[in-house]
Design brief:
Largest sheet: 7 strands, mixed
Strand order of the largest sheet: 1-2-3-4-5-7-6
CATH topology of the domain at 2-105: Aminopeptidase
Order of helices and strands: EHHEEEHEHEE
CATH architecture of the domain at 2-105: 3-Layer(aba) Sandwich
Oligomer: single chain
Distance between the termini: 26 Å
Shape: globular
CATH superfamily of the domain at 2-105: Gcn5-related N-acetyltransferase (GNAT)
Helix content: 25-40%
Strand content: 25-35%
Structural class: alpha+beta
Length: about 150
C-alpha cells in the first residue's frame, strides 16, 4: 500500500529520489541538461510529497509558488521499476489538493517533449497544453501544461 508524506526539500528520502531523477534526466536531456538543471534546484522548497511502499521511498513530487494564484509542479519522479502502480498519480493528486488547501487556483508544469510517460500522466490527470511559459518560452524541447484546481 502506498502512503504519502507531506514534507519539504530537507527530507532525505526526497533528496535521494531527486538524485536518481537527475541522473535519469542527464541521460535523456544530453547537452541541454545544464539549462534545465539551473531551474530544478531543490533547496528551500516548502511543499514536497514523498510516496512510500512498506516504508521505502518510491516516488516524489514538489511544488513552488509561480505567482499568487499558481503553483508550479516540479521534481516528479517514480523509479522505473515502480512505475505503473499509480504512485505518480497519487503524488500529483496530493500536490494538487495541498495547493487548493493553500488557496491556489491552478497548477502549471514543464516537461520534455520526449518524456512520453510524463506527458501521458499529465494528460490523464486533466492537464491541458499551454504555451511555454517563463524560462521555457523559447525552448523547443519543452512542453507546458496547466490545470485549474
Amino acid at each position: 500500500m502506498t502512503t504519502l508524506q507531506r514534507t519539504n526539500s530537507e527530507n532525505k528520502d526526497f533528496q535521494n529520489l531527486v538524485l536518481e531523477l537527475d541522473k535519469d534526466l542527464a541521460k535523456k536531456n544530453g547537452d541541454s541538461n545544464d539549462f534545465f538543471a539551473q531551474y530544478n534546484k531543490i533547496d528551500l522548497i516548502k511543499n514536497v510529497v514523498v510516496a512510500f511502499n512498506d516504508n521505502l521511498p518510491v516516488g516524489c513530487g514538489a511544488m513552488k509558488e509561480y505567482d499568487k494564484t499558481t503553483m508550479e509542479i516540479k521534481r516528479m519522479f517514480v523509479p522505473i521499476e515502480m512505475r505503473g502502480q499509480g504512485i505518480a498519480v497519487a503524488v500529483l493528486n496530493e500536490l494538487e489538493n495541498w495547493a487548493k488547501e493553500l488557496g491556489y487556483e491552478k497548477c502549471i508544469l514543464e516537461t520534455g517533449k520526449k518524456m512520453l510517460d510524463a506527458i501521458g500522466l499529465y494528460k490523464k490527470s486533466g492537464y491541458k497544453l499551454i504555451s511555454n511559459y517563463g524560462q521555457y518560452k523559447l525552448i523547443e524541447s519543452s512542453i507546458c501544461f496547466e490545470k485549474e484546481l
